[in-house]
Amino acid sequence: MSGGVDSAVAAARAVEAGHDVVGVHLALSRMPGTLRTGSRGCCTIEDSMDAQRAANIIGIPYYVWDFSERFKLDVVDDFIAEYAAGRTPNPCMRCNEKIKFAALLEKAIDLGFDAVCTGHYATIVTDDVGNRELHRASAWAKDQSYVLGVLTAEQIAHSMFPLGATPSKAEVRAEAAARGFSVANKPDSHDICFIPDGDTRGWLAERVGAEKGEILDRNGSVVGSHEGAAAFTVGQRRGLNLGVPDPDGRPRFVLEVRPKTNEVVVGPKEALAIAEIAGSRFTWAGAAPEHPEVAFDCDVQIRAHADPVPAVAVVQAHAETGEPELMVRPGTPLDGVAPGQTAVVYVGTRVLGQCTIDRTVSAVPTPVS
């Protein structure tokens, strides 16, 4: 129970469905004293109290479990390391993968519980032979299956999402109000929970460090300077200190971040178009394809609120390392994809699997100077 409206209603529905429910709030910070500001952040003391008030109304036991050390190691430190390596991580994916459906689920199973129930908007469907599959929520506008794409078959077998068939968030808020929950109109949280002021650039500079370096064009010519490569991400336009304008006068965007040489590469917007993505860190959300080494049709989604794009996927050996990787070729180029992002693969409404993107191939070749 995060302290939000979705998890409160999910807990109430689970009780009414006949389950023996215990409310658990996750303490993810050793310094939770700062209260939420508007809709920024989550998992504060204020949120814990909101969750407890909802549990009291429902009439279920309520506990706060301290996962702050695990969260720091698996989510915060990973976030810092990924940016230091020039990648763009998704901490919400890591939190679901390592905390909510790993550390939390492991403890729950050890204590004799059958499942972790959350307020995510997604559904679980059992196929004809008994395999549990993760699917999109009925309301695509609120669908959160993307951030659950990291779940494995074992984790899906022990997960419940009571809100998956709900037509809209407005209906959930109305139900919360009818139940007397004080969080009925509480704003949704956004931004990175451990950076509640939203200043990701400043936060990273304190932890990764900032050293002046060069900004290059696609041919390697110096066109500007920067105060620290880790502060940049692929697709970024603002904040570029370019001393040499583009010959065509067009704006330029970050195409690549090179942490080893402390360089940032920029170019035209069309160069952000990506024709191929691949990652060796891939998992299947339920039963794997029978022959993943044979190319298959799918849809790919690279951000939580992005539209899915028709694609072809296949598991193949990396040309240099020989390590298996999930390679995806979209039917139309993807825009501004960065290594470190998560690509979630769908077949219809089903989440088939995901990979953390290791490499991309541009749809626009680098011009020869």
UniProtKB/TrEMBL annotation:
Residues 203-267 form the tRNA-specific 2-thiouridylase MnmA-like central domain. The record marks 120, 341 as: Interaction with tRNA. One of its GO terms (biological process) is methylation. Transmembrane segments: none annotated. Keywords: ATP-binding, Cytoplasm, Disulfide bond, Methyltransferase, Nucleotide-binding, RNA-binding, Transferase, tRNA processing, tRNA-binding. It is an enzyme of class 2 (transferase). Residues 142-144 are annotated as: Interaction with tRNA. It is found in: Cytoplasm. The active site is at 95 (nucleophile), 193 (cysteine persulfide intermediate). GO terms for molecular function: ATP binding; methyltransferase activity; tRNA binding; tRNA-uridine 2-sulfurtransferase activity. Its EC number is 2.8.1.13. The keyword ATP-binding applies. One of its GO terms (cellular component) is cytoplasm. It holds the Pfam family tRNA_Me_trans_C. The keyword Iron does not apply. ATP binds at residues 26, 119. Residues 276-357 form the tRNA-specific 2-thiouridylase MnmA-like C-terminal domain. Catalyzes the 2-thiolation of uridine at the wobble position (U34) of tRNA, leading to the formation of s(2)U34. Belongs to the MnmA/TRMU family. This is tRNA-specific 2-thiouridylase MnmA.
